[in-house]
Specification:
Order of helices and strands: HHHEEHEHEHEEHEEHEHEEHH
Strand content: 15-25%
Distance between the termini: 81 Å
Structural class: alpha/beta
Number of domains: 3
Number of strands: 11
Helix content: 40-55%
Number of helices: 11
């Protein structure tokens, strides 16, 4: 039998919410943790306190939001509808506090930046050199990600700025740079000894070095379509080490390929089909409205250095025809 909640009494002239943020936080904890006991542990409160808070919430709203099935707290249909809105409510409250903190401090103590591994390190280094003298002691946390990792860091609010190939829904990104990729292998690799252009069949019979997506929730494949003979590594350093030692082929960013080709460590593959890979990287703020001056300044330096870098780089066609 469902509990009976009293009908809400509308008081003339009464304004403001009847329910507190703490009550919504308690409900979320019970749902996310699955039980009152685990919710109490996560909130560092007693189980009776959490139970009372949620019960009071339901009484004030005049409806049942969740019930117990076995040992698990399960939302009602009304609870599901209200829970999602309550999450936005708490997010907005936290954002409001962050705005206040930013206004009070005037300068962030730390800026967290996520960047996709294909983003040229030389741009970052130049931007950091310009940022350091004017950073006012601001700490910098740099996360290097692959594929969906940089956008996932935004969604999970682990960074202030992200340089990512995918702009998550609900975020606005500014185009930063296009990254072109070239297929390469060691000069002594069998693919360079065919005496003809390299076909799809040739590639399918060779080991393809691919980089593992650092994201967890929506992993993507950086590999070349159709090749099942893959060796997967977690970073570009490992991929380069395998390539320069003749263990497979791969598509790597042209700015990485340029130096390795000049040194004689790698050569572009002469493909039968002019298959090109290209990706665009975007600069995305976690929340530009509350972003502090240090974050804004670092982003400006990165954008400026990226623009200068683009103007100085050789074209894709020039790199393809490089010889050691």
């Amino acid at each position: 039998m469902l509990p009976v909640f009293p009908k809400l009494i509308q008081i003339p002239g009464m304004r403001g919410p009847r329910v507190t943020l703490e009550q919504w936080r308690a409900l979320q904890a019970v749902v996310d943790c699955g039980s009152y006991a685990l919710a109490a542990e996560s909130l560092n409160k007693s189980q009776s306190s959490v139970s009372y808070t949620v019960t009071k919430l339901q009484e004030q709203l005049g409806m049942e939001l969740l019930h117990i099935e076995g040992r698990k707290a399960v939302l009602t249909s009304a609870g599901e509808a209200l829970l999602q809105r309550s999450r936005h409510l708490l997010d907005n409250a936290m954002e409001l506090e962050q705005v206040a903190a930013s206004l009070m401090q005037g300068w962030e103590a730390e800026v967290a930046l996520a960047t996709d591994a294909v983003f040229p390190k030389s741009i970052l280094i130049q931007a950091f050199k310009q940022f350091l003298p004017i950073s006012r002691g601001c700490k910098l946390l740099l996360r290097e990600e692959v594929l969906s990792g940089a956008s996932e860091a935004l969604l999970e609010k682990r960074v202030d700025i992200s340089i990512t190939p995918w702009v998550p829904p609900g975020f606005m990104g500014e185009k930063l740079i296009d990254i072109n990729f070239v297929a390469v292998a060691h000069p002594d690799h069998d693919l360079h000894k065919l005496g003809r252009k390299v076909s799809v069949s040739d590639l399918n019979q060779s080991v393809h070095i691919v980089i593992k997506d650092s994201g967890i929730k929506q992993t993507r494949d950086s590999g070349w379509i159709g090749n099942d003979l893959r060796w997967t590594v977690s970073n570009f350093e490992s991929a380069r080490a395998l390539l320069v030692n003749g263990l497979g082929f791969s598509w790597i960013p042209m700015h990485e390929a340029h130096e390795l080709i000049v040194k004689g460590d790698l050569l572009p593959l002469d493909l039968e089909v002019d298959y090109e890979k290209q990706g665009t990287l975007y600069l995305v703020f976690a929340n530009k409205k509350i972003s502090g001056p240090a974050s804004q300044l670092l982003a400006q330096r990165i954008q400026s250095c990226a623009k200068q870098y683009i103007e100085e780089q050789p074209t894709a066609e020039q790199i393809k025809h490089l010889k050691p």
